[in-house]
Amino acid sequence: MTPDIKPLFSYRKHWAQRFGIAPFLPMSRAEMEQLGWDSCDVIIVTGDAYIDHPSFGMALVGRLLEAQGFRVGIISQPDWHSAEDFRRLGKPNLFFGVTAGNMDSMVNRYTADRKLRSDDAYTPNAAPNKRPDRAAIVYAQRCREAYPDAPLVIGSIEASLRRIAHYDYWSDKVRRSILPDSKADLLLFGNAERALVELAHRMARGEKIETIRDLRGSAFMVPRGWLPETWVEADSTTVDTPGAVQPHADPYAVRQSSPPRADAQVAAAAPAARTHRIRFHTREEHLAARQDARAHTVIRLPSYEQVKSDPVLYAHASRTFHLESNPGNARALLQAHGEGAGGRDLWLNPPPLPLSTAEMDYVYGLPYARSPHPAYGSAKIPAWEMIRFSVNIMRGCFGGCTFCSITEHEGRIIQSRSEKSILDEIEAIRDKTPGFTGVISDLGGPTANMYRLACKDPKIEAACRRPSCVYPGICENLGTDHGPLVDVYRKARALPGIKKVLIGSGVRFDLAVRSPEYVRELATHHVGGYLKIAPEHTEEGPLSKMMKPGIASYDKFKALFDQYSREAGKEQYLIPYFIAAHPGTSDEDMLQLALWLKRNDFRLDQVQTFLPTPLATATAMFHTGKNPLRKLSASSEQVSVVRGGRQRRLHKAFLRYHDPDNWPLLREALKRMGRADLVGNGRRHLVPAFQPTGTRKPLRDGRPSDRSARN
User: Fold this and answer.
1) Most buried one in 25, 106, 378, 431, CB count within 10 A?
2) Per-residue pLDDT tens for 208-224?
3) CATH class assigned to 8-217
C-alpha cells in the first residue's frame, strides 16, 4: 500500500458507534427502536433481498459503514410505484445509497433474446417482478420524491456499467450516463469501499456532498466549462487518434476559445529576452513532473450526442475509456451531455485504488449474520442457497475478456484475502451456517485460479495499458505461481469437520497449465465429478474478438486433467462453456464448433447466447461493427455482428446440434452453406435426414409447424 492511501480501518469512528453491532441491519422502524435508534445515518435501497453475507453488496457496504460507527438501515425490494415505501425508515442523516442489486436489473429481468425471465434468484422463493426495469434510476427518483433535500448516491454494478454514455441492448440505442437520469448527487463506481467510507466521514463532519469532488471512483455532473484550479483538459485524440470519419468541424469542441487578453497581446509583441537561465532536471524530477501533469489532466471524450450518432466515435470513446482504466495511470474523464447553454459535463475521477490484503480481510471479517434477514421466514432465496457454503477469496480479473463486465467493475488488479482470513471464514461456515454437511462448494471469485497472481514489478503494473495480461499470450511480467493457492486448498481441506472442498468458479486453463502441480491438486482433491471450464469457442475469428486463448490451451489442460484424474483413480469430466452469436462469429465458425463438439462427444445442455452488457468492449463491437481493440477509422476493420433473431437461433442451434428440435433449422442452414454432405444418418453426419415424430417440422417459410414449438 502506498503511503498516501488511508487504510479503511484507520478512521476515527463516528459517535454512533455507542449503539453497538446490530444482529441484522434494520429494515423497519420497529427494528430501529429495538436498537435505540431515532434515525439512520445512511439508508441503503436495494433491488435484492437482504442477506447478511459479504457476497451481497448491501450487507458488505452496510456492515462496513456500521464498523465505522454509522447507523445503517436497509430498504430491500421496495414498492416502487410510489414514494411511500421509501419513507419507511425516515430521512437519512447523511445520504441514501441506491443500488439495483448484485446484478444489472435488465440482465436480471431479461434473457439474451429480450424475453422476460420467469424467476429472480435474488428474491424470496424466486418470485419475479419484485424490481423494476432500470431499478437504480427508478429507486433514485422515488428517494428524491420521498425526501427532495436528502443527498443521493448511486452505486454497484448497474450504476458502474452505465456511468458514461453507453449502448443499451434492451432499447437498442445509445443512452446517456445514468447520472442525469437518476438525478443523483454522486455515482460511486467499481468496488467503492474507499470512496464510501471517506464520503460518509466527510459528510458527518459537515461537508456538503456537492463540494466533494476529489474521491477516486466517483462521478458527478458539473456545469459546462467547470475545471479545478491547476487542471488542464485534453481531448481523447491525445490518447488514441481515430482516422477519417464523417466530416465534423471539430468533433471534440464543446466551447470556443477565449480571445487573447490585451496584456497577453502586449506581451506577445514585446521583444524576447536575449538570455535566460537553463536548469537541467534530474530523471526523478522529470518523472515526478510527468506524473503530476497526468494526475491533473482530464480527458474529454466525444459527447453523448456525438457517440449517439457516430459509430466510429462511439468505438473510439470505448477504446479510450478502456485505455484509461488502470488505477495506476488512469486520468479523469469528461463527457458532455446536452448541447447549448443548458448542457452539462459528466466528470469521472480515476478508478478506485485496489484494497490491500489487510483491508480485504477487514471487509470480509466484519460481523455478518451469514443468513437472510428473519423477515423472510422459511422462504428460499436461490442466490443464497447457491453461495451459502462458498468463500470468495479474491476480486478482480486481468483476463480482459471483451464480453465480460467484471473488469469494468472490479478492475484488472487482483485483490486477495490472506490465508488466515479464508480459513477463518470456512470455520465460520462450519460452526454457524445451518445445514452444513462438511462440503465447501467453492473457494474462488471471478476466476478460480488468479489468487495472489500479480505483475512481478509494481512499477510496470502501474504504467501498463494492456487490456489483458493473458492475451494474445501470457505477459512475461505476470507472476503465475499457483503455490499460495495450492497451500490454501490443502489447509482448507485439513480443517476439522471439512469433508470436501470443491472448486465451483471457472478455471482459467491457460494459466493453470503453467502450474501442473495445481492441476494435479485440483483433479485429485477438489472436483466432484465435473469441472466448469470456458474455452468459449474453437475458431480464431471469434476468439480474437473475445480475447480468449486458442483451443490448443484447452487441449493441453484437458490432457493434464485427464492424466491426474486417472492417477487419482477418479472418473471426472470437463464441462466446457461456449458462446453463440458473439461479434466476429460467422455461420461457418459455428459449424466448425459444432463439428468439434461432435468429434469430442459433447452434448451441451445449457448454452449461452452473447448478451451485450453496457461498457463491455464486445458490446461496442456489436453496436458499431468496429473493433475497438485496434486503431479506428471509418475504413478500419469491420466486425461481423449477429443481430437477427433467426441467425442468433441458428448459432445457438449449432451448439445443440443433437437436439431434434434444432434439426430443421440446421438442415436448411447446411444446405444454404453448401454443406449438405453433413445431413444424413451416418456417424460422419452432423444432423439426421429424418425428423422424429413429435418434434419440430419445417413449413415452407422455415417456421415450426406444431403449436407447442411455436409457443
Assistant:
1) 25
2) 999 999 999 999 999 99
3) alpha beta
- Facing residues of 233 across strands? 298
Q: What is the pLDDT of residues 656-672, one digit of tens each?
A: 999 999 999 999 999 99
- Count of Cβ atoms closer than 10 Å to residue 3 Cβ: 5
- How far is Cα 436 from Cα 440, in angstroms, rounded to an integer? 9
Local structure of residue 87 (DSSP, 8 states): G
- Locate the domains of the chain by residue range: 8-217, 221-243+289-351, 389-658
Q: Which residue did the predictor score with more confidence, 287 or 420? A: 420
Which helix or strand (DSSP H or E) is residue 609 part of?
Answer: strand 608-609
Residues facing 478 on adjacent strands? 455
Could you tell me the CATH superfamily of domain 389-658? tm_1862 like domain (3.80.30.20)
Q: What is the CA radius of gyration of the chain?
A: 27
> Computed from CA positions of residues 279, 283, 285, 288, in that sequence, does the dihedral angle turn out positive or negative?
positive
Residues 6+ apart with CB under 8 A from 653: 659, 662, 665, 666, 669
Whole-number Å distance between alpha carbons of 602 and 50: 39
How far is it, in rounded angstroms, from Cα 42 to Cα 74?
9
Please, is 101 exposed, middle or buried when counting C-beta atoms within 10 Å of its C-beta (0-12, 13-18, 19+)?
Answer: buried
Q: Considering the entire predicted model, what is its pTM?
A: 0.90
How far apart (Å, rounded) are the C-alpha atoms in residues 582 and 603?
20
Q: 103 to each of 326, 394, 444, 618, 661, how far by Cα in Å?
A: 23, 19, 18, 19, 32
Among 334-348, 408-422, 686-700, name the most confident range: 408-422
DSSP 624-684: HSB-TTS---TTSPBPP---SHHHHHHHHHHHTTT-GGGHHHHHHHHHHTT-GGGBSSSTT
pLDDT of 417 over the 70 cut: yes
Q: What is the C-alpha separation between 98 and 192, in angstroms, rounded? A: 13
A 10 A CB-CB count for 699 gives 10
- Going by their DSSP bridges, the two strands 186-188 and 152-155 should be labelled as parallel
236 C-beta neighbours (distance < 10 Å), count = 25
C-alpha cell at 272: 524576447
| Three-state DSSP class for residue 72 | strand
Q: What is the mean pLDDT of the chain?
A: 91
